[in-house]
Design a protein that fits this description.
Layout: H1 13-28, E1 42-46, E2 49-54, E3 63-70, E4 76-82, E5 88-93, E6 106-107, E7 110-113, E8 120-127, E9 136-142, E10 172-176, H2 184-195, E11 200-203, H3 213-220, E12 241-243, H4 257-263, E13 271-275, E14 278-282, H5 294-301, E15 309-313, E16 319-320, E17 323-324, H6 329-336, E18 342-345, E19 351-354, E20 370-374, E21 392-396, E22 401-408, E23 418-425, E24 436-439
């Protein structure tokens, strides 16, 4: 529903309503009243699309909802440009907010966590569909008392590592990545997983588009670590979540690793924990995994006693379709030759379970460790996997869903002796043929 200037086609009631709103807003777009007063809607054109921005009263502090309407469903890029300083990327929203009305334009309204940015006066910049388009700039002032540093979360991440399992039944974990984008399918999947009450959620990486403070707040959601009663989307499960960092958080012009760390209360980007008698390694596939790396030595030095269950999870799999990531291969080899049982990954946007593989990623008499991919979180779901060496046990593409992992034998404080799994669709129903297990 692009608003093309001078277009001779008929004007629909929806377009007529938006044209009227735009005309009224453009009349007021330059009006900025005194401090602690509201700013009128600021409207302009970017990339041929009409954009209207209405911030709340100035100055902005804490979390503030910015009303943003666009004439058509299109990708929107948001940037904070402090006066005399570098531009700071805020967020990319590929689609309008799900479940919202389009009567007054397509809704891209968002929460800006201004406490995560230094105090300044500048402009909130909106560009559609890319930063190559002319900007629509809205004057704003941030005032949080952040003269030299932002407001950080407390470094209490260790208090959110899982407590010993004492439930009467074996614990069931959910695992999925490549989801957090504030879109209909990922949001629905988050609700489905939450309703199933998993013992833990392994979030396997990627908050779209680059995992900034503002994207974490809007795409992953308000975290239950910060506001248990006001948590939203994936953030409702934050207290039971063990996350791993994705590749999107390091891409773009500026790394957002610090934003990820802050969202998860200063959590290290790799660590280990025990749950249900299983030693879990939460690793970072963005940094070195070779035999000389600190991360490799950390895993080597923290391997449990022989016979224990070992499961690791990180974002980018060593094996995806037939492609092998050479930089991840040393970590796979270390785990496969040290009693490792299971590796769970995201990144590949589908659901795939590989057959038992040996240290060389081959199906052989010595093969034991399994690779499970759960990257069908709902954002841009891809095709099913293929493999030239016939190493795939199950794969499903073009369908959003998640993995369920059961620690068999861990009920009532016991120790797991095997791990079993199945994939579930977006409604939470079992996907036929997706089940499997591995003896520890």
């Amino acid at each position: 529903m692009e608003l093309s200037q001078g277009e001779g086609s008929a004007v629909t009631p929806l377009r007529r309503t938006f044209f009227s709103l735009v005309a009224a807003a453009l009349t007021l777009s330059a009006v900025v009243v005194g401090p602690d007063s509201a700013i009128a809607a600021n409207c302009g054109v970017s990339g041929g699309y009409t954009v209207c921005v209405t911030p709340p009263a100035m100055p902005l502090n804490g979390e503030q909802t910015i009303t943003l309407k666009v004439s058509s469903p299109v990708k929107v890029v948001l940037t904070w440009v402090p006066d005399g300083d570098r531009s700071i990327y805020l967020m990319t929203q590929v689609k309008p907010n799900p479940g919202t009305s389009h009567v007054e334009g397509f809704d891209y309204s968002f929460v800006w966590p201004t406490q995560k940015y230094l105090d300044a006066t500048g402009v909130l910049r909106v560009q559609v569909p890319s930063t190559a388009s002319a900007p629509v700039d809205t004057p704003v002032t941030l005032a949080n008392g952040n003269a030299a540093d932002i407001q950080h979360t407390p470094p209490d991440w260790a208090s959110y590592l899982p407590a010993p399992w004492t439930g009467a039944s074996d614990p069931v974990l959910a695992a999925v990545g490549d989801a957090a984008a504030n879109e209909a399918k990922p949001n629905r999947l988050a609700a489905t997983i939450a309703q199933s009450s998993p013992a833990l959620l392994l979030y396997l990486g990627d908050v779209y588009e680059f995992g900034s403070f503002t994207e974490n707040r809007n795409h992953y959601g308000m975290s239950a670590l910060d506001d248990a009663s006001g948590a939203t989307l994936w953030g409702t499960m934050a207290a039971i979540t063990q996350p791993t960092i994705g590749n999107h958080e390091i891409e773009g012009s500026v790394s957002h690793v610090d934003d990820w760390t802050d969202y998860w209360h200063q959590r290290p980007n790799y660590l280990s924990f025990d749950f249900g008698g299983v030693r879990f390694f939460d690793l970072d596939s963005n940094i070195a995994m070779d035999a000389d790396s600190p991360q490799y030595r950390f895993v080597h030095d923290n391997l449990p006693a022989p016979g224990s269950c070992i499961a690791a999870f990180w974002h980018r799999p060593v094996l995806s379709n037939s492609r092998v990531r050479s930089g991840v291969r040393p970590m796979w080899r270390l785990l496969a030759t040290s009693g490792g049982d299971l590796v769970v990954n995201g990144h590949t946007h589908n659901m795939t379970a590989y057959k038992p593989l040996d240290q060389f990623l081959d199906v052989s008499a010595d093969a034991h460790m399994r690779e499970l991919i759960s990257g069908a979180g709902g954002h841009s779901v891809g095709r099913a996997s293929t493999d030239t060496k016939d190493r795939i046990a199950f794969t499903l593409g073009k369908s959003a869903g998640s993995l369920r992992l059961t620690l068999n034998g861990a009920a009532s404080g016991g120790t797991a002796t095997s791990l079993s799994w199945s994939y579930r669709d977006i409604q939470g129903s079992f996907i036929a043929g997706s089940g499997g297990s591995v003896q520890c």
